[in-house]
Amino acid sequence: MLYFDIRSLEAGAESVDGTLEVSDPVWQESDARPVEPGVHVVGRLSGAGAGRFYFSGRFEGAAVAECRRCLREVTVPVSDEVHLLFAESEVDEADEDDVVPIPAGERDLDLRPALREEWLMAVPAFALCREDCQGFCPSCGTDRNSEACTCPPPSDPRWDGLRVAREPQS
């Protein structure tokens, strides 16, 4: 469960054990979405003063990404520890980056939008299908994982001065 009645949180802490599902409407079109069964979230949600609540826990799941070298689809594991402070809008007027606002008059605390943001930050920006992925040849575009390429290795002209300096003088 990722929704909590604020009144029950004021009375005592709650255990969190739920799944942010792939089909949940919190995900946006451009998001790095998790694969089935979704993002499993566990932790503890407790009061942290008047109108403030603290979540401490972790999430685990997997996301689909493209290999940065060969563009193949790859599934990458994603997990992270999460620590969030929620505050009612009237209680915390300062626009602090590390505080998740609770709209005034809200009776339920919804963890899903904040967990979505944490998930997006935890998904690796660069994925590899395997550590020894050869990727594409920058000259002819051949996938070097599936066939050999006869192109010479690319040379960066910015290093030519050092190459000349390194050559033995005769």
TrEMBL record:
Sequence segments annotated as region (Disordered): 144-170
Coiled-coil stretches noted in the UniProt entry, renumbered to this chain: none
Bias (Basic and acidic residues) ranges: 157-170
Pfam families registered for this protein in UniProt: YceD
Protein's name according to its UniProt entry: DUF177 domain-containing protein
Naturally occurring in which organism (per UniProt): Gemmatimonas aurantiaca (strain DSM 14586 / JCM 11422 / NBRC 100505 / T-27)
